[in-house]
């Protein structure tokens, strides 16, 4: 690849560029279907003539046709003589009475389909016979050109002298992508930046229809370091197999053009590749959410995780993604898939069935679901028994982020029926609390109406319209409830219930269900607001685990923060 540098000065003034684009539009896109100045298939003594067809052999009627002098420069804003502009007739024929004497190209465009034809390097006929040049209209192609020596964001134009090709381009991740090019060998192929520097290929670029050709382009590789300074979050003990999340967006790195690349993200800690799940990806917007499993998150340490994207690598497998949540986790729902799908990130197949939900306008990580207050829920098939069938002293941990809208009505976050266990917000006349209830089969007293015992844990520090992290931990001693990073209820209130403990209900997010034989309405307490990042594990997590999870997942804290490695 050759390079040249020059001062473009007036060539790049906006008035010239605007005039150039207007000229090109008039040449190729604005013909009224009539042939200019007698250049038609009916001309008496043409110098060039032929037939333009589509790839299937059908004739291209009224296609725009132009003869372009080899000396023509679209970049310089030159106008094309009207004698070199025409169109095919009703059966795809064209002809021109005159052609440029110094050589020329033939261009054709079907405006309805966008298909084009280009033939470079034509010379005037040496005798009285007309040049016979037929053309096939093809899909457009593109070129990926390695932009060595140019910074990302550099703008300019790519043009091919002797054609009407002029494309505004921007350097993206070390590459120039030139779209909408006709299939042919394009030479010379020149990029000129707005500051006057140029890159010119030493050989022709062979454009292939409906594909992108790579020319002198290296694989895209992006690297970030993620400092794990646990002193910043006050981690008091080592945590084993800890799921860590972090995100990237356009404020961290300019991902412009990344939608063009396929590749793989990897995470490396202390020289070892660790499991990584890209739970949310909006490449066009440059937004990514990652989850990885840290083998040992050390207290008061300064470790560094390295995150890399390499073009062309195999994409992450489902096994690698699910292994992020392999240590005691039963189900993890990120709610990143939209309003119609809820996937269990553990691979345990506790995939949810959403109903009457919408994608929320904000989220803790990636995306989240909005619940309307009068309908909407996520039901987990296969959850009536097994991992979700727990008694009060069984080991289990639930953690979830919620953002309530208002506080006037009670609402359930999740639960397994009205008389096994559920986490909710309870709004009474003099009471507004977070409430976790669990039922047992134990009978207290001699009251003949008692069928089960009811344990509940409450906290009155309820704030609506604010993201709140709620965690419930059960172990052999009972249950505890945390709000954000604080333990608020370690000892339960205990009472009796006239309802029998029912264990065969499904686990449902966003509403409360009653047994079918109950006199109470079968469904009530629909959630109103946003629910995100609901994690369930059959392990009793420690105080340090909960506080680290809160600091890590809380967007107001944003720990850790990835840093681009240049």
Task: Walk me through the structure.
The chain contains three helices and 44 strands. With 566 residues, the protein is mainly beta. The chain folds into three domains: 1-218, Immunoglobulin-like (Sandwich), CATH 2.60.40.1120; 219-316 and 543-566, no CATH class; 328-538, Jelly Rolls (Sandwich). The strands form nine sheets. An eight-stranded mixed beta sheet has the order 1-16-15-11-12-13-10-18, with no helix packed on it. Strands 26, 28, 29, 31, 36, 37, 38 and 43 form an eight-stranded antiparallel beta sheet that branches. The chain is elongated, with a radius of gyration of 34 Å. The model is unreliable at 1-44 (pLDDT under 50).
Which helices and strands appear, and what pairs or packs with what?
Blueprint: E1 2-5, H1 14-29, E2 48-54, E3 64-69, E4 85-87, E5 93-96, E6 104-109, E7 116-122, E8 131-132, E9 135-137, E10 141-146, E11 155-159, E12 166-172, E13 175-181, E14 185-186, E15 190-193, E16 197-200, E17 205-206, E18 212-215, E19 221-229, E20 239-248, E21 263-269, E22 272-274, E23 276-282, E24 287-297, E25 302-311, H2 318-322, E26 329-333, E27 353-355, E28 358-359, E29 369-372, E30 377-380, E31 396-404, E32 411-416, E33 421-427, E34 432-440, E35 452-459, E36 468-475, E37 478-483, E38 486-489, E39 493-497, E40 507-509, E41 512-513, E42 523-524, E43 528-537, H3 543-553, E44 563-564
Parallel strand pairs: 2-8, 2-9, 10-18
Antiparallel strand pairs: 1-16, 2-5, 3-4, 3-6, 6-7, 10-13, 11-12, 11-15, 12-13, 14-17, 15-16, 19-25, 19-44, 20-24, 21-22, 21-25, 23-24, 26-43, 27-30, 28-29, 29-43, 30-40, 31-36, 31-43, 32-33, 32-40, 33-34, 34-35, 35-39, 36-37, 37-38, 41-42
């Amino acid at each position: 690849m050759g390079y040249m540098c020059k001062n473009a000065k007036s060539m790049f003034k906006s008035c010239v560029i605007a005039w150039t684009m207007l000229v090109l539009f008039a040449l190729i896109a604005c013909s009224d279907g009539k042939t200019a100045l007698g250049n038609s298939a009916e001309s008496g003594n043409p110098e060039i003539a032929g037939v333009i067809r589509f790839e299937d052999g059908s004739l291209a009627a009224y296609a725009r046709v132009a003869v372009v002098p080899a000396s023509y420069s679209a970049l310089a804003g030159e106008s094309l003589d009207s004698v070199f502009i025409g169109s095919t007739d009703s059966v795809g024929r064209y002809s021109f009475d005159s052609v440029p004497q110094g050589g020329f190209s033939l261009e054709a465009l079907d405006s309805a389909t966008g298909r084009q034809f280009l033939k470079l390097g034509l010379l005037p006929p040496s005798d009285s016979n007309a040049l016979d040049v037929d053309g096939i209209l093809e899909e457009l192609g593109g070129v990926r050109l390695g932009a060595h020596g140019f910074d990302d964001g550099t703008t300019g134009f790519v043009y091919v002298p002797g054609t009407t090709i002029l494309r505004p381009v921007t350097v993206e991740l070390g590459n120039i992508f030139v779209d909408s090019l006709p299939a042919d060998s394009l030479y010379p192929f020149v990029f000129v930046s707005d500051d006057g520097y140029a890159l010119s290929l030493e050989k022709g670029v062979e454009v292939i229809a409906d594909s992108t050709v790579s020319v002198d382009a290296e694989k895209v590789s992006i690297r970030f370091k993620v400092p794990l300074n646990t002193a910043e979050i006050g981690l008091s003990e080592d945590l084993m197999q800890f799921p860590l999340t972090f995100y990237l967006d356009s404020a961290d790195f300019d991902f412009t053009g990344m939608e063009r690349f396929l590749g793989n993200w990897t995470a490396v800690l202390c020289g070892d590749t660790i499991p990584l799940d890209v739970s949310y990806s909006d490449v066009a917007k440059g937004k990514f959410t990652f989850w990885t499993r840290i083998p040992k998150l050390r207290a008061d340490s300064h470790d560094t995780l390295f995150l890399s994207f390499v073009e062309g690598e195999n994409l992450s497998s489902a096994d690698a993604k699910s292994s992020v949540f392999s240590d005691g986790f039963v189900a993890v729902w990120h709610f990143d898939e939209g309003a119609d799908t809820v996937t269990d990130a553990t691979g345990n197949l506790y995939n949810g069935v959403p109903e009457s939900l919408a994608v929320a306008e904000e989220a803790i990580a990636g995306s989240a679901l909005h619940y309307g207050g009068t309908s909407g829920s996520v039901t987990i098939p296969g959850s009536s028994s097994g991992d979700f069938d727990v008694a009060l002293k069984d080991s289990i941990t639930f953690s979830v982020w919620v953002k309530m809208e208002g506080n006037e009505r009670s609402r359930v976050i999740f639960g397994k029926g009205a008389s096994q266990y559920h986490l909710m917000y309870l709004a009474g006349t003099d009471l507004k609390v977070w409430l976790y209830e669990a039922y047992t089969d134990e009978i207290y007293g001699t009251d003949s109406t008692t069928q089960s015992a009811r344990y509940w844990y409450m906290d009155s520090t309820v704030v609506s319209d604010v993201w709140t992290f709620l965690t419930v931990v059960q172990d052999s001693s009972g249950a505890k409830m945390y709000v954000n990073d604080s333990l608020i209820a370690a000892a339960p209130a205990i009472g009796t219930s006239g309802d029998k403990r029912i264990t065969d209900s499904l686990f449902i997010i966003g509403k409360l269900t009653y047994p079918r034989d109950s006199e109470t309405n079968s469904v009530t307490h629909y959630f109103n607001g946003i629910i995100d990042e609901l994690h369930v594990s059959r392990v009793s997590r420690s105080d340090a685990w909960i506080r680290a999870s809160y600091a890590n997942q809380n967007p107001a804290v944003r720990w850790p923060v990835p840093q681009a490695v240049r």
